[in-house]
Write a structure and sequence with these properties.
- By secondary structure, the protein is α/β, with parallel strands linked by helices.
- The protein has two domains: about 240 residues, 3-Layer(aba) Sandwich (Aspartate Aminotransferase, domain 2); about 100 residues, Aspartate Aminotransferase, domain 1 (Alpha-Beta Complex).
- About 35% of the residues lie in helices and about 15% in strands.
- Helix 1 packs across helix 6 and helix 2 crosses helix 6.
- It binds pyridoxal-5'-phosphate (PLP).
Length: about 375
Amino acid sequence: MTTVYNFSAGPAVLPKPVLEKAQSELLDYKNSGMSVMELSHRSSEFEAIIQDAEQLLRELMQIPDNYKVLFLQGGASLQFTMVPLNLAQNKKVQYINTGTWSKKAIAEAKKLSNVEVEVIASSEDQNFTYIPEVTEDMIDPDAAYIHITTNNTIEGTAFTDLPNTGKVPLVADMSSNILANNYQVSDFGLIYAGAQKNIGPAGLTVVIIREDLLGLTDVPSAMLDYKLQAANDSLYNTPPTYSIYIAKLVFEWLKEQGNIATILKQDEEKAALLYEAIDRSSLFSSPVAPAFRSLTNIPFVTGNETLDKKFIAEATKQGFKNLKGHRLVGGMRASLYNAFPIEGVRALIDFMETFEKENGGKN
Ligand SMILES: *Cc1c(COP(=O)(O)O)cnc(C)c1O
């Protein structure tokens, strides 16, 4: 098998030891004679898996006891609807618009006729290349929540400081930097994340919700009701069992690295290497100002679309996969999630330097 480095924004690279463990257990999970995929979600084996997954996530993120952890389906995109449906019917909500995913979250909330949506800050005026300032006077104390996207996967920006929302719950789409930041869970009312960026395979969505936010409204669907999902320990219907199993293995792998602080340090080191290479290059540049740069998604451009295409084509041939930027931003994007190895960053930088020499830096 040839070595490739997978820079995909999602579904994304998984830790090799996790895939090897899954392979070794694929046909016979713990002498059950069955694959995890074949286990009943009501079996004692699967119950242990989902409970361990929750416990490990609680330890890693230091989730306080008054928060529920839910393993749901429908992706982060279904949370765009579930959040207002559960927290804000007949109420006002406030959103910060920092990119394509924020916009989608806003658009979905607006579809609920009994939710009033206000966008209090936006960076759309500059193609979402920065994080707008949010001051306390912008916050309506009667709002049901303030919604942010902590890391903007497509544009490559991230909140380093969280807005101070006072008593109004802060709700975060953390899909692309969950487990890659030092936010405190207690600063949020609700956190959600699709698993396929920094947790595990697609099909699983993690929701972390403060208990007092359960049961605030009548939700006209059992599947969309956080309270019911929490009361059933995420087993109201058949959950994505195999995705939960892989997530559990990823959490175990993360714990072996140490804690979130150790992981964050590794992520900072990887990102710093690439940003330094981009900043010292006379060919490549970053569209994002240093203060707002994401650790997990790093867009860069040559400023010449033809050259970008050539770079991507040559990189792909050398085993640097999925470097093409999102179609809305263009250029390149390297996603450096927790499972992405630092050797891959070093190899990419070498390749960029060679490409720059051969294709003449702008100077
Ligand atoms: C990928 C992504 C989404 C969409 O996730 P799905 O699981 O595909 O619905 C939403 N928000 C952010 C920040 C993302 O990175």
